[in-house]
Design a protein that fits this description.
Blueprint lengths: L10 E5 L3 H13 L3 E5 L2 H10 L4 E6 L6 H11 L4 E5 L3 H12 L4 E4 L3 E2 L2 E2 L1 H15 L9 H4 L19 E6 L3 H10 L7 E6 L6 H9 L5 E4 L10 E4 L5 E7 L2 E7 L11 H12 L3 E5 L8 H9 L3 E5 L8 H8 L5 E3 L1 H12 L4 H5 L5 H13 L8 H11 L14
Parallel strand pairs: 1-2, 1-3, 3-4, 4-5, 8-9, 8-14, 9-11, 10-11, 14-15, 15-16
Antiparallel strand pairs: 6-7, 12-13
Length: about 400
């Protein structure tokens, strides 16, 4: 009973304190020709690691006899081994699973559904794919921005909220993506172009994941809702188990949340998002494919490039799993291959978004303010009832607004 990952026998350590579920997992792994060992607590897990170092650890969360996050932290500090977390949907389990990602786990999958007749193939396939991909992952990357920034402060109100974006950045990620997204989105300035994201996560996880990213980024990060406007300074994350598409709305874009079959083995699918962006935004878009297993996103990125978009792939050295970027590069879908840390600055430079320093120091000169005040006096009727009201409003609240732009919102 042997499965091979690049000519190596794949050994899986299952850490689970529920005896029936543990035995079911063992049988499933054996039926797929994977060698497995089991442990019911942290001490047993460390003993198994010393006896025969596994290629991957499958950690069941939550467990009553194991502090899974502490075990993960201990293993990653001593001798890093890829972790795949198996968790239930929703509730406190979601928070625990995302904490595991912060500490270095590579993937979160939902628990397979076991019945008297066996296991659901649809529910077991994501776990098997994750285990095989994790065995090939590159460990040792820096802690995620979420982990580094715990307890950090962010700005209270996005300066660009409500302003439709003139450019669009579409990002796709899978295994290793939560860390990569925290790094990339965390490096974007407050007035960055609108961002739409597909990250392969189970249903029920993306809402909490979005809030965690929001806490460490200067831009606003939300789980996408149907009909939401793509705005500057905001990233919209595709909800789990639903496809995310972008549609034009005049000169603006909105997102639609749609059901549908699995595409490229995933829902949400990066290919679905990228193809919609290619059609809706054309050359005003940027496509970014990040770390991940498989080839989801490769064909969609090629469609974006064909429509004039600038396309970027994360390089192999900074990727946890180089599968998706490699697939996109292989079919000629990528304009530039960049390290993760260079992608956000490259987007800023390409689109012309002001740098962080410039964004903080864009206060108009005294001469500009003086000319704006004169224009306000000369053209008082901006939709206001009287000259006095207009002058008072415009001089107090929006004296930097050029006269030719018309009335301010307060008028």
């Amino acid at each position: 009973m042997m499965a091979r990952v690049e000519s190596r026998t794949l050994r899986v350590l299952v850490v689970c304190d529920a005896p029936i579920f543990r035995e079911q997992l063992q049988r499933v792994l054996a039926s797929r020709e994977l060698v497995s060992a089991t442990a019911v607590d942290s001490r047993g897990a460390m003993r198994q690691i010393e006896l025969a170092r596994p290629d991957v650890i499958l950690l069941d969360l939550p467990t009553s006899r194991v502090d899974g996050v502490s075990l993960l932290r201990r293993v990653m500090a001593k001798d890093p081994i890829p972790f795949v977390v198996c968790s239930e949907l929703g509730g406190s389990d979601t928070q625990t699973a995302l904490r595991a990602l912060d500490e270095g786990a590579l993937e979160v999958v939902t628990k397979p559904r076991f019945t008297r007749s066996g296991v659901s193939e649809d529910s077991i396939a994501p776990m098997m794919d994750a285990l095989r991909a994790a065995a090939e992952a590159t460990l040792g990357h820096h802690p995620s921005a979420v982990q580094r920034s715990q307890g950090g402060k962010r700005r209270e109100t996005p300066s660009q909220r409500g302003i439709a974006s003139s450019h669009l950045v579409a990002i796709g990620a899978s295994m290793g993506g939560p860390e990569a997204l925290a790094t990339l989105l965390g490096a974007l300035p407050e007035d960055a172009p609108g961002v739409v994201v597909v990250q392969h996560l189970p249903e029920g996880f993306t809402s909490v994941f979005s809030r965690r990213l929001h806490a460490v980024c200067r831009i606003s990060v939300k789980e996408a809702i149907d009909g939401a406007l793509v705005e500057r300074g905001q990233a919209l994350i595709a909800p789990g188990n639903h496809h995310l598409v972008v549609v034009p709305d005049g000169a603006r874009w909105r997102v639609r949340i749609v059901d549908g079959p699995l595409i490229s083995k995933h829902r949400p699918s990066i290919d679905v998002l990228f193809r919609s962006v290619a059609e809706a935004a054309g050359r005003r878009a940027v496509g970014v494919i990040l770390t991940g297993m498989g080839r989801d996103g490769a064909d969609g990125l090629r469609a974006m490039k064909a429509q004039g978009a600038w396309t970027v792939a994360q390089d192999g050295a900074s990727s946890v799993v180089f599968g998706m970027p490699r697939a996109a590069i292989a079919i000629g879908a990528v304009d530039d291959v960049l390290p993760l840390a260079s992608i956000a600055p490259a987007i800023v430079e390409r689109i012309g978004v002001p740098s962080q320093a410039e964004a903080r120091n864009r206060e108009p000169s005294k001469g500009v303010r003086r000319r704006a005040r004169r224009a306000a006096r000369a053209r008082p009727s901006w939709g206001c009832d009287t000259r006095r009201r207009c002058r008072g409003c415009c001089l107090r609240r929006c004296r930097l607004r050029p006269a030719e732009e018309g009335p301010c919102s307060s008028c």
